[in-house]
């Protein structure tokens, strides 16, 4: 849900720690000498008396100072669920002292999860002076809990469970989606509700290497080049059970990952599913980098060309790797000639 902007993503701090340096009564006043005022934000998850950073735009040295201040406020019971609090804080920022709006959004209580009582999220907005925030933010933030809290309460369903739902939906046909993601094939879903369509789209995006594989400067659009080879879309009709696939294509590399996805889904472990998907992408990227290295070596050595042929034959993903390599090296004649030889080799092996 949140993309961490600091190196302290998983760092937590005990709210019972006493740090008088950041007591709200000793934070000092806002200095009017600073003319240019920047704005910042920080979002934390509060659980079992500890704060975990989710996202922040504060400088790395200032964020722990804010977290210590919030911890003191929480340990004193000064932050109540759904009620914002505005104070002046001194941080390691150019302004030195800034106004800070903090709001604790408590997690909804559930009989199934009594241990979650008291957990929640702390949203902090910083900038300007305490008095300025008091006059400008108070009217705007009255609806903060009603507007933000419902979204935060759905973070698990929205950000984690979509991979699990897709695997449960397509089962062993997951290899078709993996192949479509790697080959930049468009996927169209029919006969399904909007959430299912969104789940599939997000799964394809999460499995795709678009933006991760380094492209040559002469290649304006990798997807456009690859799509010329695969003009047909992958069609998924969810009106039937199980869903019917049209124009479905896979290869040995994608097939080898089926069982890992199925096993994790049966164990109802969505976090493991996400890790498996990341491992799938990592392996594809490693193979792509190996192929590019072999292609460079093959321009000067016939033995390297032979090694490249063996690699493509054994990896099980040669068609997709060559597809991407041809798009990335379209402006390099020597590399293109090597790739044509490799494509002929694969075609002969397939026949």
TrEMBL record:
One Pfam family here: Njmu-R1
Cited InterPro entries: Njmu-R1 (IPR028280)
A single GO cellular-component term on record: trans-Golgi network
GO biological process, one term: vesicle tethering to Golgi
Protein name: Protein Njmu-R1
């Amino acid at each position: 849900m949140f993309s961490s902007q600091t190196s302290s993503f998983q760092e937590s701090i005990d709210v019972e720690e006493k740090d008088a340096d950041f007591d709200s009564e000793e934070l000092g006043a806002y200095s009017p000498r600073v003319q240019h005022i920047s704005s910042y934000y920080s979002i934390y998850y509060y659980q079992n008396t500890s704060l975990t950073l989710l996202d922040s735009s504060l400088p790395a040295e200032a964020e722990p100072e804010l977290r210590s201040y919030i911890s003191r406020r929480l340990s004193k019971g000064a932050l109540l669920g759904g009620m914002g609090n505005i104070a002046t804080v001194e941080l390691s920022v150019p302004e030195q002292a800034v106004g800070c709006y903090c709001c604790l959004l408590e997690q909804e209580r559930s009989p199934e999860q009594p241990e979650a009582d008291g957990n929640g999220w702390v949203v902090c907005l910083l900038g300007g002076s305490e008095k300025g925030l008091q006059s400008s933010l108070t009217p705007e933030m009255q609806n903060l809990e009603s507007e933000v809290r419902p979204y935060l309460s759905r973070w698990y369903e929205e950000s984690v469970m979509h991979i699990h739902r897709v695997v449960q939906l397509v089962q062993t046909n997951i290899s078709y989606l993996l192949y479509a993601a790697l080959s930049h094939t468009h996927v169209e879903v029919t006969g399904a509700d909007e959430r299912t369509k969104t789940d599939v789209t997000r799964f394809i995006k999460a499995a795709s290497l678009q933006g991760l594989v380094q492209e040559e400067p002469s290649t304006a659009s990798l997807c456009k080049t690859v799509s010329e080879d695969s003009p047909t879309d992958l069609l998924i009709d969810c009106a039937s059970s199980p869903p019917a696939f049209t124009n479905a294509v896979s290869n040995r590399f994608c097939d080898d990952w089926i069982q890992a996805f199925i096993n994790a889904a049966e164990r109802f472990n969505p976090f493991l599913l996400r890790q498996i998907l990341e491992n799938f992408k990592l392996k594809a990227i490693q193979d792509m980098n190996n192929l590019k290295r072999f292609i460079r070596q093959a321009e000067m050595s016939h033995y390297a060309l032979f090694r490249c042929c063996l690699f493509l034959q054994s990896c099980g993903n040669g068609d997709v790797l060559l597809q991407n390599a041809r798009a990335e090296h379209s402006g390099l004649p020597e590399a293109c000639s090597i790739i044509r030889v490799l494509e002929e080799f694969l075609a002969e092996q397939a026949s």
